[in-house]
Write the C-alpha cells for this entry.
Amino acid sequence: MSTPLRAIEVPELAASEAFQQALGIAAKHADDVDRRGRFPSEAIDALRSAGALGWGVPREYGGADAQIDDLADATFELSRKCAATGMIFAMHQIQIASIVRHLADSIWFGNYLRRVVRERRLIASATSEVGVGGDLRRSIAAIQRLPDSPGELVRFEKKASTISYGAHADDLLTTVRCSPTADPSDQVLILTDFAQMEAEPTGEWDTLGMRGTCSPGFVVRATCPADQILPIPFAVIAAETMVPFSHILWAHVWLGISTEAFGRAQNFVRVQARQNPGTTPPSALRLSELSVRMAEFRALVQGSMQEYMSLAQSPTLSTVGYAVRINNLKIAASEATVETCQSALRICGFAGYGNAGPYSVGRHLRDAYSATLMIANDRLHATNAALLLVYREGK
Amino acid sequence: MLPSTESQATEGQKRDRIRQIIKDHAGLGVDFEKVAYSTDLYRAGMTSYASVALMIALENEFELEFPDAMLSRSVFESIDSIASAIESLQRVPQ
C-alpha cells in the first residue's frame, strides 16, 4: 500500500497553510483568468501542491478521506476567490466520489485512486453529448468490445457537447452505453487517460461567465482495457453519488460567489456610512434585505448537505422523493445566486458595475448566470413535474 | 406456512397482471416476449419517466399507494420486485 505524500487530518484540510496559499493565488489571478478566458493554472497547480486533488480519496488508497462537508467547505472558499477554480475543484471531486463510492472490488480502480494521489491527477468528465438534449441519463456513444485484442480492449467515440477543463485534465470520466445494442439509458462510466485518447475540440469557450473553466465541446476517441469501466451501472452512480454530489458542490460554488458579492456590497455600505457618521445610508436597508436572502440560501444548501450525509449509502438516495429534493436544491440555489448577485450590484451601483475595483461584482454576476444553465433548470422542472405525479411531498 | 397451490396460482396471476401493465406503460425498447419475471426493466430500456407512468398505472390497477420509501429503482426493477412490494402493501391495512 502506498504512503500518503502528506499526512493531513481531514478537519485541517481547508485550514492548512498550503490550501490557504492556494486561496490567495486563486484570488490574485481571478480577474486575469476571467478577462482572458484562460484556465486558472496557477491556482490548480497550488491545489496540486497542497495535495488537495487527492483529498476525496480514502486513506487506504493514500488519500485524506475527506467527506462531502470538507470538500464543500474547500469549494466554497475557493469560489469566493475564483468561481472557475472552485468549479474545477468541485467537478474533480465529483468524479473522485463517483469512483470511490462505486468501484466495488475493482483492482484497476483501486490502483487508479492511488495514482490520483501520488501523481496528483486532475479528472474531467464527458457526461454531455450532442444529440441527447442535455439528458445526463441517455447516451448515444457506446462501448465496443474488440474481441481479438490482447487484454480485452474496448473502444468508444463520443461527441461531447462540453468538457470542462478538457484540455488541461489528465484523465476523463465518460458516460457511454454498455454495448452498441444497449438502450440509451443503459450506461456505464469509463475512465481513460488522455494518453489513451484523441480529443479534438469542436468549438471555442468564449462565454459570459465561468470563463476559466474552459469548457468547449470535444470529439473523444479512446481505446483502453475493459478494466477501466466502473463495475456499477451509471443509473446507480448517478442517483446515489454523481447527481447529489454535483448539486451540493455546485451549490457551494454559487454560495461562495454570492457570499463574496455580499461582502463587497457590505464593504460599500460601510464606506458610505463612514462618510456621513450618525446616519444610516439608504443602501443599508437593501443590505439588510440581502442578508435575509443569504440566510435562506445558506440554510437551503447546508440542509441539503446534512440530509445527504445522514442518508450516507441508504436506499433512500434512489427514491423518487430524494430525486425531487436534490433537483429542488439545484433549481433554488442556482436562482438564489443570480438574485443575490443582482441585489449586490444594486447596492454597489456603478462601483459594482465597473469591471475593476473593490466593489466590482460584474464577474460574480456573470459567473452566477451559468448556474441555471448547467443541467438546465427547465429540464429539472420537467423531471420533477413527472416525478411529482407519484411522489407526495412531506410524506 | 408453506404456500398452497392456490396462492401460487394467485401469485402467478398477479405477476401476469403486472406484466401486462408493464407492456402498456413501461415503453420498453426490447421484444416484450423476452421480458421474464426477473428481467431488469431499466436495463431493458425503461426510462425514469416511463417508470413514473408505470407506478401510476400499478397504483390504479391494485388500488394502493406506494409510500415514498418504495418509490425507488430497486422496487420497480423487475416484475418479481414489483410483485413483492405490492404483496407487502396488501398485507398491511393501509
About this structure: The interface with chain A takes residues 29-30, 42-49, 52, 55-56, 59, 65-74 of chain B (CB under 8 Å). The first helix of chain B runs from residue 5 to 25. Chain B has a mean pLDDT of 85.
